[in-house]
Amino acid sequence: MKDIREDIAWAKINKDVLKSLESPRNLYWVIVIGALLVFSVGVGCEIYQYNVGMGVANLDNPHVWGLYIATFIFWIGMSHSGTLLSAILHLMHADWRKPIYRFAEAMTTFSLMTAGLFVMVHLGRLWQFYYSLPYPNDRGLWPNFQSPLLWDAMAIFTYLSSSILFLFVGMIPDLAICRDNIHSGWRKKLYTVLALGWEGTDRQWRNFRVTYLTIACFLIPLAVSVHSIVASDFAMSQQPGWHVTSFPPYFVAGALYSGCAAIITLFIILRYVFKFEEYMTLPILKKTVRLTFAIAMVWTYLNAVEFASVWYSHDIASKDVLIQKATGPYAPYWWGMIFCGSVVPLILAFKRFQTNIPVLLVTSLLLNLGMWLERWMIVAPTYSHGYYPWTWDHDQFPSWVQWGMVFGSFGWFTLLFMVFCKVFPSVSMYEVKEMVYHRSLASKKLEVSGSQESVEGAH
Amino acid sequence: MIDNNFDRRDFLKVLGWGGAAVALSGCGNTSVEDGKETVVSYVEAAEYVAPGISVYFNSTCAQCDAGCSISGRVREGRVLKLEGNPDSVINRGKMCGLGQAGVQHHYNPDRVREPLLRSGDRGEAITWDKAYALIAEKLNGVSGDQIDFLTGTVSGHTKALLGNYLESLGSKNHFVYEAVSPAVQRAANMKSYGMEMPRFNINKAKVVLSFGADFLGAWVSPVHFSQQYAEFRKGVDGQRGVLVQVESKMTLTGANADRWLVVRPGTEGILAMGVINALGVAGLSLSADVAAAVKPYDKERVSKDTGVSTESLVKLAALLKDRTPSLVLLGSAAEGYAHGSQNAAAINLLNQVLGNVGKTLEASAAVPFPQIAPTIGNTAALRMVNNRLADGQIKVLFTYGTNPVFTAPSEMKFKENLGKANFRVAFAHYLDETALQADLVLPLDSALEDWGTLVAEYQPEGVQISVQQPLMEKLHPETRGMGEILLSLVKQRQPESYKAFDDYYAYLRTAMLKNKSEFANSAMDDDVFWNGVLSAGIINVGGNLNKLSSKLSTNIQLPAPAEQDAKYPFTLIPSVTANLRDGRHANQPWLQESPDPLTTIVWDSWVEIHPKKAAELGIVEGDIIAIESKNGTINAQAYLFPGIHPDAVSIPLGRGHEAMGRYAKGYGVNPFQILDRVFDGETGELAMHETKVKLSKVGKRVIVVKDEGFAGGAQHGKKIAMTKSSDQVDLSEEV
Amino acid sequence: MSVSNLLENWAEFRHTHPVDDVPHDPYKWAMSIDLDACSGCNACSIACYAENNIPVVGKDKFEHGQVMHWMRIERYWPEDGREFPDQGATFLPMMCQQCEAAPCETVCPVGATNHTADGLNSQIYNRCVGSRYCSANCPFKVRYFNWYDYPTTENVWPAEMTQQLNPDITLRGKGVMEKCTFCVQRIRAGERAVKNEGRILRDGEVQTACQQVCPTGAITFGNLVDPESKVHQKWKAQQVELTADEQEKDKEEGGTDLRGYRILEELRPYPSVMYMERVRESAI
Ligand SMILES: Nc1nc2c(c(=O)[nH]1)N[C@H]1C(S)=C(S)[C@@H](COP(=O)(O)OP(=O)(O)OC[C@H]3O[C@@H](n4cnc5c(=O)[nH]c(N)nc54)[C@H](O)[C@@H]3O)O[C@H]1N2
Ligand code: SF4
Ligand code: SF4
Ligand code: SF4
Ligand code: SF4
Ligand code: SF4
Questions:
Q1: Does residue B490 register a pLDDT over 70?
Q2: ipTM, 2 dp
Q3: Does domain A23-386+394-430 match CATH 1.20.1630.10?
Q4: Using N-to-C axis directions, what is the helix angle for A26-52 and A247-273, rounded to 10°?
């Protein structure tokens, strides 16, 4: 089967994609309203916590970090998929990415924005958050450049701005199409401004290609560094269970993993909601699924490396934490993480499930659950079982306020995403056109040489 | 210390509320506007007022009767913190946690603020004039022997005035009640040593063998003994003192022992006799009658009776024989039985046999002024008042410094009997359980705003009279000092004799000046003398030493260990903790939140059960257990505690208030209520450890709120709290 | 706001430790706690509440692990598996160890917790944003976070009780981290008091609240660089070096008669508190 039909007319592509800006299925509105409700739960919890104090989250001394930080890492991880699909596959000339990179990039941006929320709600004094930014001030006060948390703040900020830029730049030709196809209203004004006067001249295309490539190149190391830095929050500390040198690659793998899983989920939803069956095709899904499977195995391997290095290092305190994760009160979650993260993806190895939408939807959700549990299992157990036995505290469990905000964050993310898809073309029109064009050229060539098989392998 | 050569009363007036209001505005909790009419301008402040500068005034800690002298930090008219007065021979600059919380007694939000007259089940605020008039009216036509005072331990000039008042009423009925008091021991000491409370020189002993005396916790004068203990640990000639503690439930002192010997409840006396016997075996020469008396107590029998191994017994005897002098102490765990006096006699005999009398146990000084010498409370007093109430012999009852409705075993029906008096007056700081039953509640000044003197029972050197003076102006204008009230009351009866005294301060000053020659040079100027007294906060008088004798009494009848009662198989040990004692300070939040040292539990009661026993009964930590005695049932959370005899369970005293204030009410349970009515055969004291109980699970489980974490008291191989054996250290080289 | 300003300020502010490159002068505050003297009475802990305006959180919050005691007394049982703890318990007063290379300091994103020139781990309340990273990285877990706004919480400081508050230190509002300061307000007041005399503090002129109250005198506090000070002499007698991570005592297994040690020294936080082992009689 082919990644995409080779005979789709360019006008049809425009029409189909532009239609997504107008009349999605009704399910779209159900999702938007649902997301709004879910988000408002989170907002309610934050208002309550802000007024009364962090105590309502049921954090304690010394169990000072909880779901907020775990979920923060989760969303940061999620953001890696966009960069992966868009930038890395772009550099690798894997053109099957073309119909799906746009929404993946949007996902990057929005998951970063969601992650940012968690940094905020986690702060005891949210209203003083700007102290942690290096802004000039006449007291000569600077943040502490030694703190991984500061690197974090800066890395995320950089990553977020670069991602927005990348998303935007990649959208310019499409924005011009929107501008040219819509004749009045605020949308017209918006697209006119954002299209930056794009006319599709050769010079514009040349500059565009170079710019896009440059940002892509810049973004890849940035993405890797962001999650490495998030990993440093833990690895640079002195705490048992955190003080692990393999954390940065481990975190990056986890990030790519959860990102890919999320792409599968969103792929399936978008495909249905915006009637993108023509573009988000099953062969493309299959490729994504295979990629996800590969990353799942890398992650599993890195997990094993971490456990083994802790086990054989004779760092008793770290070993205790590991044993405690597997046998203590966190055991159900920890084993749940192993199950969802390492066992469930085995389904993806079976060809017949690689295009089975219902199975893939459930699987991808389970993978994401596993990745979320992974983050929680990194953060919490160390607090319960640190260096100082007197303070061991195994009964700490997040309150409904924490759960409410975790829940609410999905609403916030979905809301942003859904609004984006309705306002901007979530499938790249110009790239799909390119893809269709290149494919038709290729198959014409193949018809001449007569070998169908090697085409799929070529990409 | 600043000189007190100014008028202290002006000082207080000037500083008082005005200062407080100014200072408070800085804390953001109130505004200057709130106290506008009382704000005092510092532009015209007296010379001794320096805003922002703290001054220290000496006074006396009134949180217990040990008589520690304190030094209160006062700034802008508010007392902020209490420190120990370094010149006091009792506490030498140190304090205990209970004492630290004295400021929370003073600033307590639940203090009674004006006289309250019962009207139905409510208290109606009345004026002092009305209150005094009412008392006069109610006393009218009541004969002296129908008027009783039930108080806690009293001493100093309060006691003197109280005596005068009683005399003016023609009453001899002053009953002094302390719910937890070493009263059996006093009687035993009187017999053995010729005095109730000799000096115990822990610091001079090489071995201290303590039968349940919690001298680091709540026993007699803990701050003083803690200091002695520190010296004792450093050792005489570099030989570190050895502490052996014998008890059925580990006290704080037991937790600090080199060897903690758990005994079957009530067999302390048998063990003491066994040790004497073993000493004889080890070669200590015993007089013939002693040898005869201890003959039946061979190590096998003693081991069988007490549960202490013969090996421990032999080692203990060897240690006591080798390292002299030693000191044997006798505490509440030993005296709390029907045969408490016998236990005490046996333990004192051991001390005598070891030759400690005159060395580590010395004569104490007698207070030269009997009017102000302490009258020490006991539980027999409660019994007498209760009987008199029950028989309708009391028409008017005054209570002060005691909370019998809370501390009397419910079986005594004290609360009911109280109803039989016609008129009940409570002098109170809080609306505690007893004050709630009163017809008239008279609000008292806190110890930090009152004048007075306090003479402690335990006197380590000579006699120290601790002087109490206000550290700040009254918080509540309508409270009165106990001395002030007594003076007003006695003036009602004998206006002529007391008309020279405008107030209690005048009385106190005059009384002290009258004895100037005893305290100092009689030629000294009155003001100089008086200011000196206030500045020092203490007066030391030599006092003649009591006569120390050592009468060996071998007439000791120790019953065989009690058979286990099939119906009530556990002995209940109501434990006295350093911070809560009998519960009178339970409304001080620092004390509620300060973890119990042994269990680290806060804000609640618990029942200690040995883990082995708990396993047998299927009890785990946090199970709610019904503890049932013949006289009632209380429910408490289980705490598995290794430091307790498996046949005993223990519940701390002091919690379980139904009234008193926001920090006390509703926290924990009150084991006083279920105590069996068993008394010491000789003294008639309530035998606190004689209550037998049974346990049953009520089917609920809670999380025990405590500081101890999941790991309990284990260190998991980490070098956190480390211990060395004494043969591995050389203390003499340490600084 | 030049870059040089940034770099200079920052270098200054991240004053390096341990102490070799910048010797402590004239003060290095340190402690010694004798576990053989400490009876576990908790007086120090309550005194610390009184001195440092520590809120009483109440039963519910205590249950949730939100207690604020800067000084906690830990009780350890012997782990020899015997039926009864017949050598008693060991009590250990634990508060901020004022580490010379404090793990809490390096991680604070805003530099709200720093090292002072006289060797204290300081906490700047109004700079703290409440990230709690410092607590996460403190090996001793002696940092306490204000989970609620205690000054306005019911029954924490009812009106009358506010009058007891020590005006020398602030009340901490919600969202800031706090911990034992070695009673820095007393140290600073003492330093000011002797400044006019042109001298430095002598041993004993400043006592911490816990030291002052302690009935057994288990706590010794003072200036470690002053050879006259008790704390200096104790550290010296026990051969405990501030900048070492393995002391004389640990070099041979059970071989010395020294008692002084520092907790979790192997993590190299270089604590300023030396503990002295509890002793138990061998003859009984
Ligand atoms: N009535 C009256 N008015 C006066 C004066 C007076 O004596 N009486 N004095 C005058 C004088 S001399 C002065 S200097 C001014 C002082 O006036 P302000 O400068 O307003 O002084 P502060 O109240 O100290 O406020 C400083 C703010 O900075 C915040 N802050 C603390 N740390 C940081 C940080 O790291 N970064 C940032 N961005 N903020 C931080 C604090 O939370 C606080 O909100 O008042 C002037 N006004
Ligand atoms: S022992 Fe008694 S008098 Fe002394 S400080 Fe403690 S409570 Fe106060
Ligand atoms: S006050 Fe002293 S003896 Fe009591 S617990 Fe504290 S350090 Fe130990
Ligand atoms: S003990 Fe903890 S809080 Fe104190 S300095 Fe060390 S790391 Fe920091
Ligand atoms: S809680 Fe405060 S002091 Fe601690 S790391 Fe965060 S900002 Fe710094
Ligand atoms: S040094 Fe001061 S702040 Fe630290 S525990 Fe002692 S009393 Fe508290």
A1: yes
A2: 0.89
A3: yes
A4: 140
